[in-house]
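Protocol step 4 of 6.
Sequence for FAD-dependent oxidoreductase (Paludibaculum fermentans) entered exactly as in the expression construct, tag removed. Do not edit the line below.
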Amino acid sequence: MSDLSTRRTSVIVLGGGPAGLGAAWQLARRGFAVTVVERGPAVGGNAGSLTVDGQRVDFGSHRLHPSCDPGILSDIRNFLGDDLLDRPRHGRIHLCGRWLHFPLKPADLVLHAPPAFAAGVLRDALWKPTPHGPENFASVLAAGLGPTICHDFYFPYAVKIWGMDPQRLDAEQARRRVSAGSLTKMVRKVLAPSKKGRFYYPRQGFGQISEAYAAAAEQAGAQILLNTSVTGIALQGNSRAAVEVRDAAGERTLEPGLVLSTIPIPQLARMLQPAAPGAILTAGGALRYRAMILIYVTLDTPQFTEYDAHYFPAAHIAITRLSEPKNYGLHGPAATTVLCAELPCDPADPVWQASDTDLQKLVLDALRQAGIPYEGRVLGTTARRLGQAYPVYETGFRRHFDPLDEWVSQLDGILTLGRQGLFAHDNTHHTLAMAYAAAECIDPAGRVDLDRWQQHRRAFEEFVVED
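Step 5 output, structure tokens:
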């Protein structure tokens, strides 16, 4: 690794997820003195991987979608080589008591869709209600998809994921989170070429993407500090800020430089000195995030099902999604498999404090209710808790986000990006696009071309999450 003291402008990246690491690599290879600060023991953040009972698993179900920017996909291919697998999507959804392939397939819909559901969708295609009242998540989807799909799938799923009535969610939640916003678009997706039913996945788990970016950044001269928390950020003007950090050795201050922040934007505002105005801190405190408990259950069987993921929109089934990492193409112990159940919640909910034993029972009960019970031996259960899994676009959330975003955008020496930094619903390929765009806007002296960045920000608004 090269001597950072001989490098050019200093850049401090807060957060070692895909956005932070992508930007770090781009800047380090251009000669910047880059330091990445990550509070966890490994890179990747919510897009990382870990090992449970000898099986490599992810923090939930992740895929690299074919819609990834070609340049970014080319970089990932160069990093991973043969470890980047081209995989078929093979999931299913539990809808109205029946199982349908997911993504949806025409023949499966004809043969297995509940008759009442199929009749309702046909009726909705022929007759659409006239929208009335203010726009929100519920009204936008109902106008585009019709009542049947909304009431049998999207609305109960929304309550489970975001913890509130769909009418209390902003219309932007529908536009940014539901790629098929009309029956016409949904039909096109169902009839799309087979490539739409495939995805890319690293042989060593989804976290291998972040690990590859980290290795490339370090090879280019970047320094990555793990198990290191940010305790304060002192603005010094002239595109420079001093970052105070704490690790096992104690507290210290990093050399001032341009700060690229991928941490949650309300958290960033609370750390800054001089202190943010009270109105800005209040706005940040009004933004809500949904938490997630990931429940890993190790089973005494080589495989639970053939499917990579199961989706559960029904309210009476506690979990929203169940994935089986082995079926994504991951190697693991031959005699056992691990399931990953996703349970959205709030940290104030009693389930947030539930024991591993209670969470194991919750998952097994959910499988029984879905008609896929496991009667064998459970070898162990491990839970991981993500405090800020999803931003919640509650109705009128922009009254809080926009003032906070505008204030942070005017700070000299700070640039915020990524899913957490921009309070955005995005996939990994979207956050990497943000990282590349941010690096492109920084000149050799560490100054940010704000006009160019705002052009990229407008493009980010068109990102739509792919499931």
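Step 6, annotate. The CA atoms of residues 93 and 311 lie 5 Å apart.
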